[in-house]
Write a structure and sequence with these properties.
CATH architecture of the largest domain: 3-Layer(aba) Sandwich
Helix content: 25-40%
Radius of gyration: 19 Å
Bound molecules: NADP nicotinamide-adenine-dinucleotide phosphate
Number of domains: 2
Structural class: alpha/beta
Number of strands: 11
CATH superfamily of the largest domain: NAD(P)-binding Rossmann-like Domain
Number of helices: 10
Order of helices and strands: EHEHEHEHHHEHEHEEEEHEH
Strand order of the largest sheet: 1-11-8-7-5-6
CATH topology of the largest domain: Rossmann fold
CATH class of the largest domain: Alpha Beta
Strand content: 15-25%
Shape: globular
Distance between the termini: 42 Å
Length: about 290
């Protein structure tokens, strides 16, 4: 069984990006610059944005964190997005979700200039990805594609079952696995809460990608012998034996499924660490104008 190590792979990617940034600086080019907008004081959001800013510094990017009050109006937030859209020094922009209820996520997302949309959430980038054009692909699906590629996991002609159809994970994942490319060329079944006989379907998967958001939902009896299993879920469960008082588990019952899988991502240390690496890679691409010339 191959343990697909997202921690190591993400570090490899960060090292590659850092080397490219050093090269750009030596050539007298502009340092890639990521801006993040954080609205309110949500603890998890602060942690996520903090980790992204820290990663920028580690690899030599510039970063700008714009913090706005929970009470900021939609109009004011749209104005901040627009100012960043117009700022030639900033290459990439992310707006940390969730936003307060009085603000429309659709309006804010749609305001981000596609050329700076390094989260890959705008309709322009989702459309381009669907058309198999150069696009910024959302960080989590992109990270999974990169893991499959770097571990040389064959996807062509395989049956890939995706559990979950969210806009940020399941749906883009199904498009990427089905498209004509490598990784890709899989025959894809996208499942969701209305799917009937889920177990019968997952048992036929050569590659099973799980983004359901339910702790240890996928058990060994749902998995074919020799399948590749990618676990996107992250859940905190209490664990008094840990100093922190909790441990992380995924959407897959790792201990039993890993006995059957030919390759599997652990939680933590699988898909999770790849997300920030993908965001940094998208930002480098934005700085080098690789997607939109
Ligand atoms: P989400 O928006 O809650 O979507 C969950 C999906 O699972 C929905 O499409 C839902 O179907 C489907 N579903 C629910 N119950 C089901 C069932 N019994 N059978 C089949 N499908 C079912 O979740 P998400 O944002 O995609 O995230 C999924 C998990 O990944 C979460 O644990 C999240 O924390 C984690 N995550 C991790 C990362 C990372 O960096 N590693 C990034 C993003 C998310 P319906 O559409 O019909 O409701």
């Amino acid at each position: 069984m191959i343990l697909v190590d997202g921690k190591k792979t993400s570090q490899d990617i960060k090292n590659e990006i850092a080397a490219r940034v050093a090269e750009i600086k030596t050539e007298g080019g502009k340092t890639p610059h990521l801006a993040a907008i954080l609205v309110g004081n949500d603890g998890a959001s602060q942690t996520y944005v903090g980790a992204k800013v820290k990663a920028c510094h580690e690899i030599g990017f510039e970063s700008t964190l714009v913090r706005l009050e929970e009470t900021v109006s939609e109009e004011e937030l749209l104005k901040v997005v627009d100012d960043i859209n117009q700022n030639p020094d900033i290459d990439g922009l992310i707006v940390q979700l969730p936003l307060p209820r009085h603000i429309s996520v659709e309006k804010v997302t749609n305001k981000i200039k596609p050329e700076k949309d390094v989260d890959g959430f705008t309709p322009a980038n989702v459309g381009r990805m669907t058309l198999n054009w150069p696009a910024y692909v959302a960080a989590t699906p992109y990270g999974i594609v990169e893991l499959l590629k770097r571990y040389e996991i064959e996807t062509s002609g395989k049956h890939c079952v995706v559990i979950g159809r969210s806009h940020i994970v399941g749906s883009p994942m199904s498009i990427l696995m089905a498209r004509n490319g490598n990784p890709g060329n899989a025959t894809v079944t996208l499942t969701h809460s209305r799917t009937q006989n889920l177990k019968e379907i997952t048992k036929t998967a050569d590659i099973l990608i799980v983004a359901i958001g339910k702790p240890e939902f996928v058990t060994a009896d749902m998995v074919k012998e020799g399948a590749v299993v990618i676990d996107v879920g992250i859940h905190r469960v209490e664990d008094s034996s840990k100093k922190s008082g909790f441990r992380l588990i995924g959407d897959v019952k790792f201990d039993e499924v890993s006995q059957k899988a030919s390759a599997i991502t652990p939680v933590p240390g699988g898909v999770g660490p790849m997300t920030i690496a993908s965001l940094l890679y998208n930002t480098l691409q934005a700085a080098e104008k690789k997607i939109y010339q």
